[in-house]
Every structure is written in structure tokens, then in C-alpha cells.
Amino acid sequence: MSPRTIRPARPDDLAAVSALLADSYPTLLAPDYPADVLARVLPFIAKAKPNLLASGTYHVAHDASGQLLAGGGWTAVAPGAEATVPGVGHIRHVVANPKTLRQGHARAVLEVSLRQAKTAGIRRMCCLSTLTARDFYGRLGFVPMSERDVLIGPERVPFPSVEMALTL
User: Fold this and answer.
1) Is the dihedral of CA 151, 154, 29, 54 positive or negative?
2) Which of 20, 24, 63, 119 is exposed most, by the fewest CB atoms within 10 A?
3) What interhelical angle do 35-45 and 14-29 show, nearest 10?
4) What is the 3-state secondary structure (H, E, C) of 78-115?
5) CA-CA-CA-CA dihedral for 167, 21, 50, 69, to nearest 10
6) pLDDT number for residue 2
């Protein structure tokens, strides 16, 4: 495993995180989603969100050369919502470099995020997992609650997902 540093993301990480998402998602999601669905949703999900990178709750892992290995974080507000529920947090935009999979980078980023969330008073962490990442979250202790389609983009393309939760 290559040495890594984990730090909060910054707004100037936008291009690098977007590049990682654009490299990772098509590769990793392909076995679990039809090509036509991916073609329609990837333009919307494979872009870094500036407000998330500036939140202080999104983290990136990088190696000594600065190459991004993983990213991910949490927010108190659910994706697409405006209000918070006290004590409830939401995992956001987790990504792993497909060239360094299974080396613990995404797990390490999420462990940092979960500790930060717990310190901030979050007691239940929710996650809308892709079908691909369901087992990854399960190994972190998340429990599947239900399966549902998330509607993506202006066409509202149904994207099969798994609602999962973890008590902190």
C-alpha cells in the first residue's frame, strides 16, 4: 500500500476530484449498471461539487506525489434537501481511484469523516449507496434499509441505489 495523507478538501481540489470521479465511476459502476443508464447519469454524478469541497466535511486521500487516491465526506443535509434532522448525517460523493482499489484509501477517508461527524453530534449516518458500493459500506458497519431509485438529472433517470444507515 502506498503511503497516504488525508486532509480536508479545498475549493482548489475541484479539477482533481472531478477527474478522479470521471475516471472512477465509469470503470467501477459498469458491472452493476446498464451502459445506457450510465451514459445518462455520469455527466451529473461524475463532477465534484464546489460547495461540498468547501464544506470542511469532505476529505481527500493523496499519495506523496499529490495523486488523489480517494475522496468522500458527509453533510448534515441530505442530498437534494434543505433542512437537517438533528443527529443525522449523510455520506456524500465517495470515490476511489480504480488503480489503487482495495488498499484502504476510501475506507480511511470515511473513517476520518465518521469520527468528525460523531464529534459534531451526528449519531446516525445515512448513505445512498450505489449497487457497486453496497458491500464496501457493509464492511464499515452500514446496514441496508431499502432499495430505491434515485432520480438523476433533468430527465430524472432512475438510478438504482441502496439506502443504508450506521449508528455512530
Assistant:
1) negative
2) 119
3) 170
4) CCCCCCECCCEEEEEEEEECHHHCCCCHHHHHHHHHHH
5) 70
6) 55
* Residue appearing with cell numbers 473513517: 111
User: How confident is the chain (168 residues) per 10-residue block, as mean pLDDT?
Assistant: 84 95 94 96 94 95 92 91 88 93 93 96 96 96 96 94 96
Q: Which residues pair with 7 in a beta bridge?
A: 60
Contact of 109 with 74, CB cutoff 8 Å: no
Contact 48, 17 (CB under 8 A): yes
Strands 124-130 and 143-152: unpaired
> Which grid coordinates are listed for 71?
475522496
**pLDDT score recorded for residue 90:** 96
Q: Which residues have CB under 8 Å from 82's CB, separation 6+?
A: none
C-alpha cell recorded at residue 54: 468547501
Q: Which helix (H) or strand (E) holds 51?
A: helix 50-53
Q: Which residues pair with 75 in a beta bridge?
A: 90
Confirm if 149 and 161 have CB atoms less than 8 A apart: yes
Among 161, 44, 159, 19, smallest CA distance to 91 is for: 161
